Every structure is written in C-alpha cells, then in structure tokens.
Amino acid sequence: MTSHRIITGPETMAEGAAYLRAVEPRFAPVLENPLPMRLRPEGFDALLWIIVGQQVSTASAAAIFRRLEAAGLTTVAAMAAATEDDLRACGMSRPKMRYARALAESGLDFHALRGLPTAEVIGKLVALPGIGRWSAEIYAMFSLGHADVMAGGDLALQESARLLFDLPERPSERALREMAEPWAPWRSVAAQALWVYYRRAKGREGIGVW
C-alpha cells in the first residue's frame, strides 16, 4: 500500500481543490469549476511521449508521436530495433532518438514505479539519459497520479503563478517550489490549476502531455 496520495478520479481532485482554496484563497477563481482529469496510462509509451514533447510545441509533439504510432514504434521492442532512418522519418531529432533507445534498453520496471514514493520515482527516472527532473515529475503526476508533485521548472507554471498571484516577475524554479510548499500534499492539483489559468490567460495550452 502506498503512503502517498494518488489521484484516482474527480473526487480526489475535488478534495485537493477544497484544500487549496482553504490554504491559498487566490486559487478560488481558478477552482470555480472542477479541474479536468488529465491522467495518461503508465508505461514506456507514456515516457516516450514526454521525451518527444521536450522543447517542442504541443502540435509538433503530437504530430511526431502520431507518426511513431503509425510506424508501430511506441513499444519497447520496436523502439529497440528501430533504425535511425526509421526514427528520423517520424521527425525525431538525433538526441531524442538516443533517449528513446536508451529508455527502451533500460530494463526499467514500469509497473514497480507505481508503488514507490515520488522522490524514488523521480530518482529512478532521472538516472536515464534524456529524462530530467521536469520529465520525471510530469510522469509521476500524469501517469502515476501522484498528488503532491510541483514541476517547478515548467515555464508555463512559473508564468501562470506570476499572473495569478500578481508577482512583479516570473518566479524561478526554486522560488516556485518554495511558494508551493504550503500547498502540500496537493501540489499536483495546484499545478493543474495553474495550467488551467495559463490556458485562460494566454489562450494556449501550457503543457502537452495529454
């Protein structure tokens, strides 16, 4: 049995939202309506999606991933056997080819990650080539449903916090993590609220993992 909270459905999101309204009333305008559920299945293809989405637009990432799916390259075995030409034809850059192959060859036990504390999940993932803290936190949040994750390095979250809390400048990663400490154990719900606010303020998605 896990010792950390897992987001399993609208009721869990609502519990987190109620907590956030109590500890930070400035969240209230964002939480007037239920937050969307944005969970993705866990496993190799979910982490591959995150790798594909690094440093490109949501639309570009979706197009590349669709081509990978059409070519049958979203499984461990297929990716491990794929040639550079196969992956280039799908729009993969050379670094992302290397990261995707390394993930396929890592022997990572995706199922075992589900029962681990968030810090251990992140530690195991960042040990892999091309998986930084942001990617590991996004996986823990969206694929494993961990309720207390704040991807402080996410620029959309930083900008949304600046706008929502009327800050003089965009907070740094460290500043956003410090700001989010009182939102525990529901920092993932806070992140979802900030992404919703970013979309409202900017008219575009802040993240493309769903």
Top keywords for this entry?
2 domains; mainly alpha; Endonuclease Iii, domain 2; 210 residues; Endonuclease III, domain 1
What topology does this entry show?
Elements: H1 10-23, H2 44-53, H3 58-70, H4 76-81, H5 84-89, H6 94-104, H7 110-113, H8 118-126, H9 133-142, H10 155-164, H11 173-180, H12 187-202
What is the structure about, briefly put?
56% of the residues lie in helices and 0% in strands.
- SSE class: mainly alpha
Return the CATH class of the largest domain: Mainly Alpha
Mean pLDDT reading: 93
Count all strands and give the number. Answer: 0
The CATH architecture of the largest domain is Orthogonal Bundle
Describe this structure in words.
Helix 8 packs across helix 9. The mean pLDDT is 93. The chain is an all-alpha fold and 210 residues long. It has 12 helices and no strands. It is globular. The protein has 2 domains: 10-33 and 148-202, Endonuclease Iii, domain 2; 44-113, Orthogonal Bundle (Endonuclease III, domain 1).
